[in-house]
Write a structure and sequence with these properties.
Blueprint lengths: L5 E10 L4 E8 L3 E8 L13 H15 L1 H4 L6 E4 L6 H22 L8 E4 L17 E4 L4 H12 L5 E6 L3 H10 L3 E7 L2 H7 L10 H16 L3 E4 L10 E3 L2 E3 L7 H14 L5 E4 L6 H11 L11 H6 L14 H11 L4 H8 L10 H8 L13 H11 L10 H9 L6 H12 L9 H4 L4
Parallel strand pairs: 1-4, 4-5, 6-7, 6-9, 7-8, 9-12
Antiparallel strand pairs: 1-2, 2-3, 3-8, 10-11
Helix pairs in contact: 1-7, 3-8, 4-9, 11-14
Length: 449
């Protein structure tokens, strides 16, 4: 493994005919990377002349956002930006976000956080800020195969709000099924990572997750401009604000790019540097996972055979497993099984997951982490231990005392016996409440009830 000193943001290009954007990076001007994003979609038309200055302004921010996929191979202290100029407020925004991602990366890779990177700007080249405005009232909803985006879809449909679905990177059978079931169109924007990334990954460089929500946020700004979308509606929940563990006196939150804090910072960044008209927010921000699961179990039964929240299964498999969209061994599978066990009976659960996860002794460590028995929360997009406690308490009602599964026996013995009925009743009231916040546009607030 070669060591590097400096990471370079070299340049970006955009072809207004093909609508392909190219982004170039390197380590020490030796190991180079070229990423391509194809913004063209034959089913969605661009009905205006594109302003080159606005294009460059948004693409510059995307250039700064995408680099993390490559930088994580070997984090360097120095970052040299050659593709544009960053103001002090912009640098503060990027450094804050990178620190929140970097701490988890360092923790998982056992790297000392004694140093922090610093941006060096190529002062001879500036882009200047050219913000854009919109008259459109159209809405766009990023869709994955997860329950949360499905809940957003159903709430917006119920409220009579028209919208399109947004897919970044690539389409798949679950996203396509979600679109078919919801009767909505998909705006697909394709991403092509640099081949050199995969080559170096084989050489045992560092690796860890990439905060894809943050990348999507900046890509959607470009989509908002060229295809005229005013509302960019995410599906991030209240519990995304909570940290997983504390390390080196820093609270590590795996879901920082889904947090309200990031949303507020992003909103300010966009208003100052890109547009005053685009509204980026999460429709589910005022809800705990518990409330979202309740809505999903009632309003989304038609999606039960066509959704998943398992990241591992789709990372591992080249082809789809026709029997199940779940690996049934990762934190997300254990968490979502627990979520639904509070509202669905055992037969419905097994039909979705193909087995009873509460019977799997191999998942004991994961369930202990979810319950807070083990001190560290899994580094995944999972809810709070209070929610898990209430779901398992409700799940007990689906089992007779003589056939309680292994995991629920642990729950009763080590957690439930320490709690009383009043605590559980008050907890349910807390978790079912829809909380107010100050980031969702007022004309959408009524749809959270």
């Amino acid at each position: 493994m070669n060591k590097f000193n400096t990471f370079y943001f070299e340049k970006f290009d955009f072809d207004s005919t093909s609508l392909k954007a190219k982004f170039f990076y390197s380590f020490d001007k030796k190991e180079r990377f070229e990423e391509i994003i194809d913004f063209k979609n034959d089913f969605f038309q661009i009905e205006k002349k594109l302003n080159k200055k606005i294009i460059n302004n948004i693409l510059f921010s995307i250039h700064i956002a995408l680099w993390i996929s490559y930088y994580k191979l070997f984090p360097t202290k120095e970052l040299v930006v050659e593709s544009g100029y960053l103001s002090n407020s912009q640098i503060a925004f990027w450094q804050k976000f990178y620190k929140n991602w970097l701490w988890e990366f360092l923790y998982k890779n056992k790297i000392s956080p004694k140093w922090l990177f610093s941006f060096k700007i190529q002062q001879t080249f500036t882009l200047g800020i050219e913000k854009f405005s919109l008259d459109s009232k159209k809405a766009l909803v990023p869709v994955w195969w997860w329950k949360d985006s499905i809940v957003t879809i159903e709430l917006l449909k119920e409220a009579g709000i028209d919208f399109d679905l947004f897919v970044f990177w690539k389409s798949d059978i679950l996203k396509e099924n979600t679109a078919k079931i919801s009767w909505k169109k998909i705006l697909l924007i394709k991403r092509y990572l640099s081949e050199n990334l995969f080559n170096l990954n084989k050489s045992w460089y560092y690796n860890w997750h990439v905060p894809i929500t943050w990348i999507i946020a900046f890509v959607m700004l470009f989509v908002a401009y060229i295809y005229d979308y005013k509302y960019l509606i995410l599906s991030n929940e209240l519990s995304a604000n909570c940290w997983n563990t504390i390390w080196e006196d820093f609270e590590i939150n795996h879901q920082y790019s889904k947090s309200l804090e990031f949303e507020k910072d992003f909103k300010k960044y966009v208003e100052e540097n890109i547009s005053n008209d685009v509204k980026y927010f999460s429709l589910l921000r005022g809800m705990y996972e518990y409330k979202i699961a309740q809505i999903f179990s009632k309003k989304a039964k038609k999606y039960f055979s066509s959704f998943s929240s398992c990241n591992a299964n789709f990372k591992i498999l080249e082809k789809w497993n026709k029997n199940s969209f779940w690996c049934n061994n990762c934190p997300k599978c254990a968490f979502v099984y627990t979520i639904l066990s509070g509202f669905l009976n055992r037969e419905e659960l097994v039909k979705i997951f193909w087995e009873d996860l509460y019977q799997k002794k191999s998942l004991e460590k994961l369930f202990r982490e979810l319950l807070g028995i083990n001190w560290i929360k899994p580094f995944e997009c999972v809810g709070e231990k209070e929610e898990v406690v209430l779901w398992m308490y409700n799940a007990l009602k689906n089992y007779n005392s003589w056939n309680e599964p292994y995991i629920l026996q642990i729950f009763k013995k080590e957690v439930l016996k320490k709690l009383d009925e009043n605590y559980l009743k008050n907890l349910e009231k807390k978790l079912l409440k829809v909380y107010d916040d100050d980031i969702i546009p007022l004309n959408f607030k009524k749809y959270l009830i």
